[in-house]
Here is the input.
Amino acid sequence: LDQPLCLECMRVLSGKLDEEVDDVNRDIKAYEACLQQLEGQSFDVLSESEFEKEKMK
Here is the structure.
């Protein structure tokens, strides 16, 4: 901002920024939970021939 904010405007802006930070922190926690779940799963990797067979189905 090029100009200073009045006290009330600063409080409103600060409140909105705090809400955004809270939203981002919730998103981070949800992402980390999904990532941990995915990392805990095991996956069977198909060979090239198995992949080609699956592709033809």
